[in-house]
Amino acid sequence: MDPTETSPRARRVGGGLLWFAALGGALSWTVHLFVAWATDELACASGHTTLAGFPVKGVVTIGVVLPALVAAAALATAWLAWRRTSAAAGEDDPRMGRAALLAVVGLAANTLFLAIIIAGGVSLLVFSACQR
Amino acid sequence: MTVQTEPDQRRPEVAELEHAWHERPSLRTWLSTVDHKRIGRRYMVTAGVFFAIAGVDAIIMRTQLSRPNNGLVTPEEFNQLFTMHGTAMIFLFATPMFFGFGNFLVPLMVGARDMAFPRLNAFGYWVFLGAGSVMFISQFAGAAPDGGWFAYVPLTDRPYSPGRNLDVYALGLLFLGVSTTIGAINFIVTALKMRAPGMSLNRVPLFVWAMVGTSFMVVFALPALNLANAMLFLDRRFGTHFFDPTHGGNSLLWQHLFWVFGHPDVYIIVMPALGIVSSVLPGFCRRGVAAYPLMVLALVTIAIISFGVWVHHMFATGLPFLSYSFFSAASTLITIPSGIQIFAWLATMLRGRIIAGVPFLFAVGFIVNFVLGGFTGVMFAMTVFDQQVTDSYFVVAHFHYVLFGGAVFPLLAGVYYWLPKFTGRMFHNGLGKWAFWLVFIGFNTTFFPMHVSGLLGMPRRVYTYPTGLGWDPWNLLATIGAYVLALGLILVATGVVQAIRRGPAAPDDPWGADTLEWATSSPPRPYNFAVIPQVHSLHPVWDERSREAMATGDVLAGHRAVLTSELDGDREGPVEMPESSLLPFAAALGLLFVVLGLLWGQYWLAVLAAFAVFITLARWLWPPHRTPEEAGVAREGRAP
Ligand code: HEM
Ligand SMILES: [Cu+2]
Question: What is the pTM of this model?
């Protein structure tokens, strides 16, 4: 195959969706960390237990649950992308090979980030917001 | 195994290429060269010298601590010793050394003729040399930083640290940061735009992935450190109060900023080393590293997660438990990608045919030590354990297992592995094996006992200790180990010098390895590859089609390289590479005087030098007259 020509199959999996599949988990974990940690540390440091009327713990919970859902969605997307691309893995087509790599990396990475969000989030069941 | 991958040297195109890339040896070309191989070798030699000086600092400390109530150095001197040892090892040795490897190897591994920005590359080296010299000269002048390598405020702020010592720290690291940052950007652009045609992301060597991951971490982490140091300098010199709580500042701010940089920095140091291990194993196991996609995954996720763990350095500062737990989760699970790499290497060895050469020995030594360092690291991720042993010798033991075991062992593996490529000479095998065993035994004798003295309560950063606490034998053992270790390292250096002076000429591919640097001569010609390789697999040198493409392809004429697309490595067209120039050296020299002016409080000098830097940069950036083809703006065979 002419390597400069984009195969239609590759184009289907090559767009923004593939990037979401590869990096969605990482991005949602970043958002989670900043929202959950920053809210907790800053609110407690300034002696508040509510934030604009919401309890701090509620805000932190949202900062755990929403990103976890996005990471799960990215995981599902990566799985779909992987099913589409893995079939072509043996061919000498740089494009499909590259898309398959991104899909596998996304699959594993999203699982990992989802696990991190959940593992940190579980502590909501144990600690109150500003316990030291 | 010899493969004919280079086209015949006598072809007229090749002669013309030799002419276009030739540099006459002279002082001028020594200062003006932009060849990534020369710059890479310089980085390695300079960082090696800095390693030796920081190592001497360590030996002095160990000698002082060999027995209780020793009086070899004063407390003030000891403060400077551990601070300069730590700061130099981290900033002036580890990262620049790996940048040296990267400089030499990344262009070769991706089949390019140079780094993407050769002049910036030269500039980065000169800045590194300047920053390192300033910091070490301060030590000989008795005014070296003395607030520990992480320089916590308020101790390092006024009025607790008068004198120039911490100004050297803040300015020296800011100056160095210029070099590290542009080096990182250069690696990223080189890896994204200069790969040989056909090298899609799934065919990029793991060492290159590691350098790119490292560079992304540098680009995101270093600004935090630069900001912190700029604020520290302002606090100290101009009376601002960023870190002063009595005037509305915040002293934990320093810790946050420092560790937002500092933890990724652990991986900035270790990740290139992981890449080296993944490069060394295939040649000695006769097969590619197992589970390539998972290895890529590990590098990418480590680079990301390393930014979400910094608060584990602050588990003893009294923040809310809930906020700790998010960092605890990331700190614990970041071991999974590291574990994946360990298992992939073990699988590679199990399923390969092992040849136990010297580089292989160091790679195995690395795995042993790194597992131990990782194990104690997981222990710290438990907040309660961390609070018990923080600031004890247990921590010193842990981070030397990670930093020495995890970075220096792979580094030495890399030195032996690529020495034939760097110098064109083979090393003496027996000498290398001796060096390995001395380093391995010396290392463990030095640092294992520190776990024990730490658990027995010995705090770090003490210049001496009373007898009768049960610490004496462990300290003596550690000191003996340090001398054995030093002997091993001297043998390594001897082996390198011996190879350069008397070693037999090295073949192009002495290990029968798989990546493109072995497809060219040892050492490579200034243009690296006469024919730009067309890559058909992850192991181009092992793969018939890629080899054939290199042997029969057209020579790319002129002082040019090829640009390709970021993801798939599609050929985009040739680009004219910059000629050598004195401007990078001049700009770095100007910057050095800016730093010295600020350090000495001679602000007129700083301003004058800044102006000179500005003029130099303007001259540097002034657009030359080039056709679109020469400048690489026009693309081959495609509408613009
Ligand atoms: C060459 C063998 C080495 C020996 C014998 C050695 C020994 C020591 C000793 C005795 C200390 C002081 C402990 C204290 O008083 O608290 C220390 C601190 C330290 N070392 Fe090493 N070291 C070696 C190599 C390295 C390497 C290769 C690195 C990093 C790449 C490194 C990084 C550090 C750091 C960051 C500190 C902490 C400094 C501080 O407390 O501010 N060392 N080392
Ligand atoms: Cu850390």
Answer: 0.92
